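Sequence only, no structure available. Ideas?
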Amino acid sequence: MSTILITGATSGLGRYVAFELVRAGHVVLAHGRDPGRTEQLVAELRAEGDAEGFVADLASLPQVRDLGAHVAGAHPDLDVLINNAGVGAGAPGAARELSADGHELRLAVNYLAPVVLTRTLLPVLRANAPSRIVNVGSVGQDPLDFDDIEYRRAYDGFTAYRRAKFALAAHTFALAEELSDTGVAVNVLHPATFMDTAMVREGGVTPWNTIADGAPGVVTLATEDHGTGNYFDGTSPSRAHESTYDPDLQKRLSTVTDQLLAL
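Reply:
I predicted one. Tokens follow.
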């Protein structure tokens, strides 16, 4: 059995997956932003198995770093990281929002936070290889505008969301190559289209699928060997936006990411 950290576990897909994993006998480290909701979730999970809660606001990169350090210290046996937490497109026509650190909110939570958390936990994951990193992405991917990486011009929430998921996919493939000989597998998936979640409903979209439809892909990648550097649509191997596989784009993204994280 694995020790698995899943972010964004207090609602939606993350909550469903946390229960699937704990019922299967895994130790579940459930992250949430709200202390009360996280505490309640852990109480419910412990009725089914072994679980612990961790609280952090992923819109604050210092809190993301603290989360990683806390988890690594408390659970040196961690062998699976599921970067699930995310911010949706927002209400139609909503204005651009900023994270606690002044980054465009969707870029911060959906891309920068997973990068920072992964980097913080990599020493533990490498020590516990074979281990896995599962990035919950989206089929919705729009190429980045490197001249406006923080999306200050003509902002649109859906485009911001898709750009962040594009970045997450490109990062996944580059990281998988970097870790190819370490035993740490890194994959990204689109769980299901427009699941019945708060972020989908907030975006004014009528759900197409249930949360249960999206869970198998996440659970499978977290608990089974499916190689590394791959993109899945649910449980099926698929292809991300073709530009995410471009090594030159990946290098440019890495440079820009380091610059953003140094601010």
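The mean pLDDT is 94.
Hope that gets you unstuck.
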